[in-house]
Amino acid sequence: MYDGWTHGVKTKCPKCGSDDCNDTIGNQTVVGIKVSAHVIYCNTCGYRKEELLKDKKTIWAEEHVKKLKCNKCGVEYSSPEDREFAEKMSKSWGESLRSDGIEPTGIAPCPNLTCPGELVVLE
Ligand SMILES: [Zn+2]
Ligand SMILES: [Zn+2]
Q1: How far is the CA of 43 from the centre of ligand 1 (A)?
Q2: What is the pLDDT of residues 33-53, one digit of tens each?
Q3: Any idea where the domains of the chain sit in the sequence?
Protein backbone atom coordinates (compact mmCIF):
# COMPACT_ATOMS: atom_id res chain seq x y z
CA MET A 1 0.00 0.00 0.00
CA TYR A 2 2.69 2.47 0.99
CA ASP A 3 5.45 3.24 -1.47
CA GLY A 4 7.57 4.32 1.46
CA TRP A 5 7.76 7.59 3.29
CA THR A 6 9.73 10.08 1.30
CA HIS A 7 9.97 12.94 3.71
CA GLY A 8 9.91 13.25 7.48
CA VAL A 9 10.87 16.40 9.27
CA LYS A 10 10.28 18.11 12.57
CA THR A 11 7.88 20.99 12.33
CA LYS A 12 6.26 23.47 14.64
CA CYS A 13 2.95 22.17 15.96
CA PRO A 14 0.04 24.22 14.59
CA LYS A 15 -1.86 23.66 17.83
CA CYS A 16 0.56 24.08 20.72
CA GLY A 17 3.67 25.51 19.03
CA SER A 18 5.89 22.67 20.22
CA ASP A 19 8.92 21.82 18.06
CA ASP A 20 8.52 18.12 18.83
CA CYS A 21 6.07 17.62 16.00
CA ASN A 22 6.59 15.29 13.02
CA ASP A 23 5.66 16.19 9.48
CA THR A 24 5.72 13.25 7.09
CA ILE A 25 4.76 12.88 3.45
CA GLY A 26 4.56 9.57 1.65
CA ASN A 27 3.17 8.19 -1.56
CA GLN A 28 0.24 5.91 -1.39
CA THR A 29 -2.09 4.24 -3.85
CA VAL A 30 -5.76 4.44 -2.89
CA VAL A 31 -8.29 2.61 -5.07
CA GLY A 32 -5.81 2.71 -7.93
CA ILE A 33 -5.11 6.42 -7.65
CA LYS A 34 -1.65 7.64 -6.68
CA VAL A 35 -1.90 10.15 -3.90
CA SER A 36 0.39 11.70 -1.32
CA ALA A 37 -0.38 11.04 2.31
CA HIS A 38 0.57 13.87 4.63
CA VAL A 39 0.66 13.29 8.37
CA ILE A 40 1.43 15.75 11.13
CA TYR A 41 1.80 14.29 14.60
CA CYS A 42 2.67 16.29 17.68
CA ASN A 43 4.42 14.41 20.51
CA THR A 44 3.58 17.16 22.97
CA CYS A 45 -0.17 17.72 22.71
CA GLY A 46 -1.16 14.68 20.67
CA TYR A 47 -2.53 16.68 17.78
CA ARG A 48 -2.66 14.64 14.60
CA LYS A 49 -3.66 15.69 11.13
CA GLU A 50 -3.87 13.31 8.22
CA GLU A 51 -4.57 14.35 4.69
CA LEU A 52 -4.45 12.90 1.23
CA LEU A 53 -3.23 15.05 -1.62
CA LYS A 54 -3.62 14.59 -5.32
CA ASP A 55 -1.78 16.98 -7.62
CA LYS A 56 -0.91 19.01 -4.50
CA LYS A 57 -4.59 19.54 -3.67
CA THR A 58 -6.16 18.22 -0.50
CA ILE A 59 -8.78 15.64 -1.33
CA TRP A 60 -9.37 14.36 2.20
CA ALA A 61 -8.31 15.55 5.63
CA GLU A 62 -8.98 14.58 9.19
CA GLU A 63 -7.79 16.08 12.45
CA HIS A 64 -7.58 14.26 15.74
CA VAL A 65 -7.10 15.84 19.09
CA LYS A 66 -6.82 14.16 22.41
CA LYS A 67 -9.75 14.36 24.76
CA LEU A 68 -9.19 15.08 28.38
CA LYS A 69 -11.25 13.52 31.12
CA CYS A 70 -11.35 14.24 34.83
CA ASN A 71 -10.45 11.18 36.89
CA LYS A 72 -12.77 12.28 39.72
CA CYS A 73 -15.91 13.89 38.30
CA GLY A 74 -15.66 12.13 34.92
CA VAL A 75 -16.38 15.24 32.85
CA GLU A 76 -14.75 15.24 29.41
CA TYR A 77 -13.02 18.34 28.14
CA SER A 78 -12.32 18.53 24.45
CA SER A 79 -12.81 22.14 23.36
CA PRO A 80 -9.73 24.11 22.25
CA GLU A 81 -10.16 26.39 25.29
CA ASP A 82 -10.10 23.42 27.65
CA ARG A 83 -6.98 21.97 26.09
CA GLU A 84 -5.34 25.36 26.14
CA PHE A 85 -6.16 25.66 29.83
CA ALA A 86 -4.71 22.19 30.49
CA GLU A 87 -1.53 22.91 28.51
CA LYS A 88 -1.05 26.23 30.27
CA MET A 89 -1.62 24.76 33.73
CA SER A 90 0.24 21.53 33.14
CA LYS A 91 3.85 22.57 33.78
CA SER A 92 3.55 24.74 36.88
CA TRP A 93 0.91 22.47 38.36
CA GLY A 94 3.05 19.35 37.85
CA GLU A 95 6.09 21.09 39.28
CA SER A 96 4.25 22.26 42.39
CA LEU A 97 2.93 18.75 43.05
CA ARG A 98 6.37 17.20 42.53
CA SER A 99 7.93 19.74 44.88
CA ASP A 100 5.53 18.36 47.50
CA GLY A 101 6.72 14.85 46.65
CA ILE A 102 3.55 13.90 44.79
CA GLU A 103 3.68 12.41 41.31
CA PRO A 104 0.64 13.65 39.35
CA THR A 105 -1.41 11.03 37.53
CA GLY A 106 -3.01 13.50 35.14
CA ILE A 107 -1.65 16.36 33.07
CA ALA A 108 -3.56 19.22 34.70
CA PRO A 109 -6.06 19.94 37.47
CA CYS A 110 -9.79 19.67 36.72
CA PRO A 111 -11.06 23.05 35.44
CA ASN A 112 -13.95 22.69 37.89
CA LEU A 113 -12.39 24.41 40.88
CA THR A 114 -14.54 22.57 43.41
CA CYS A 115 -13.38 19.22 42.02
CA PRO A 116 -10.10 17.75 43.35
CA GLY A 117 -9.67 15.61 40.22
CA GLU A 118 -6.96 15.59 37.58
CA LEU A 119 -7.33 15.59 33.82
CA VAL A 120 -6.12 12.44 32.12
CA VAL A 121 -5.64 12.00 28.38
CA LEU A 122 -8.06 9.69 26.58
CA GLU A 123 -6.50 7.97 23.59
ZN1 LIG B 1 1.18 20.18 19.73
ZN1 LIG C 1 -13.32 17.06 37.93
Answers
A1: 7
A2: 889 999 999 888 788 999 999
A3: 2-64, 67-122
